Amino acid sequence: MNFLLLDPKNFIVAVNPEEDAGDQTVYVREEARGRGVGSAIVAALLRQHAVRHGGAALPRTFLLTLADTTRFYERLGFRAADAAALPLTMRLELLAGSAIQALLGGRLVAMQFGGADGDGSSSNGAPT
C-alpha cells in the first residue's frame, strides 16, 4: 500500500527474502528525500524484523551508515552503538568499510535500535 501517495518511480526496494531485515540497504534518491519515503521503508523493515523474530518486541537491531546520515536514523529511534556490541560479521564489515570511507573522506558509523537502554519504539517494535 502506498499510504504516503508517493510516486513509486522515485524509489526502488530490493529485498532478498532469504535475508533478515538487518541485511537490507535503504537508499532514497535525493530528489525524493524529505517526503517520508526512507522513514516508511525503515519502519516497515523494523516491523518485518520483529515479526520474523516472533513477537511484538523488536530484538536489538544494528546498522552501519555514513556519519552524515545518523540524524535520520536517530529520529527513528536508533542510537550510536559500540563496535564491540556488533555481531562479528558486522564488526568486520565496519572495519573494512571504515578503511574505504577514510580513503574517500567519509566515516562509517554503527547504530542500534533496541537493547538494554530502551528502544524508542512503539508496542509493535516500529518507530513512532
Automatic annotation (TrEMBL):
Fetch the SUPFAM superfamilies from UniProt.
Acyl-CoA N-acyltransferases (Nat)
Among the GO molecular function terms of this UniProt record, one is: acyltransferase activity, transferring groups other than amino-acyl groups
Which InterPro entries does UniProt cross-reference here?
Acyl_CoA_acyltransferase (IPR016181), GNAT_dom (IPR000182)
Pfam families for the chain:
Acetyltransf_7
Domain N-acetyltransferase spans what residues?
A: 1-95
* Full protein name: N-acetyltransferase domain-containing protein
